[in-house]
Amino acid sequence: MVYLKWAFRVVLLTLVVGFFHYTLPQHDIARVTDTYEKRIDFGENSIFWAASDSGNATTTVNRDVFFIQAKYPNDRVMVYRNEDTGWGWPPYFKFDTSNLQAEAADLKSSADAPQWVVIKHYGWRNEFLSIFPNAVSVRAATGPDERIIPWLNIVILTLFAAVFWAIYVRWRRFRQARIDPVLEDIGEGYDAASDALADRRGRVGRWLDSWRSKK
User: Fold this and answer.
1) Taking the domains of the chain in order of start, what are their residue ranges?
2) Mind listing the pLDDT tens digit of every residue in the chain (215 residues)?
3) Phi-psi group of 163: left, alpha or beta (phi > 0 → left; psi -120 to 50 → alpha; rest → beta)
4) CA 117, CA 113: separation in Å to the nearest integer?
5) Which listed site, 6, 16, 36, 202, has its alpha carbon 20 to 30 Å from 163?
6) Do the Cβ atoms of 82 and 120 come closer than 8 Å?
């Protein structure tokens, strides 16, 4: 039972951490190398793609998607998709996909004359599943070592921790006041019933022994 409890906690913690890591905004400092548009046929990974651009027809089969290619200061390559989130989830309320694509194209640079930019995005990159993070905004950076403090993430995680702690404290008080006494009464009743059954079996055994001794 203890192992099941800890397994449940680990799974729950993994889901919570994964949810926040995917949803909360992240900032990458990189160099835009190219921008392009590609027709995507959605398959099993369709859950990791956003909806059609706001105002366009909704389709779940295929559509054109903008992409932004970039390189980190360590020369590692990253590819971002550029899709509207609209009024859906995550709540970034992004409606300016075309404008963002134009901004990213204007910030393209070469390795000889790099123009470093800050790309704000959410999501993951997975080559095996063809998953791309979704770029939310792009701006010029002061340099490859620009320091970015994720204040929004800090505030959201702090509020989540405060709400979780408040719920946990109230649940613990409720359990101690209402559930634990009931469980104790059930345990005491079970022990009393076990003792009574054992005593009855003992009396029956003594009666049988006395009856056998009379023979």
Assistant:
1) 26-148, 151-215
2) 678 888 988 999 999 999 999 999 999 999 999 999 999 888 878 888 887 666 565 656 788 999 999 999 999 999 999 999 988 889 999 999 999 999 999 999 999 999 999 999 999 999 998 999 999 999 999 999 999 999 999 999 999 999 999 999 998 888 778 776 766 767 666 555 665 566 565 555 555 555 555 55
3) alpha
4) 13
5) 6
6) no
Q: How far is CA 14 from CA 2, 9, 122, 155, 212, in A?
A: 18, 8, 18, 21, 66
Q: For the chain, how are helix, strand and coil distributed in percent, rounded to 5?
A: 45, 20, 30
Helices (H) and strands (E) in the chain, counts: 4, 5
Domain 26-148: give its CATH code.
2.40.50
Which residues neighbour 137 within 8 Å (Cβ) at sequence distance 6 or greater?
A: 100, 119, 120
If one counts every other C-beta atom within 10 angstroms of the C-beta of residue 154, the result is 10
Distance of alpha carbon 32 from alpha carbon 119, whole angstroms: 9
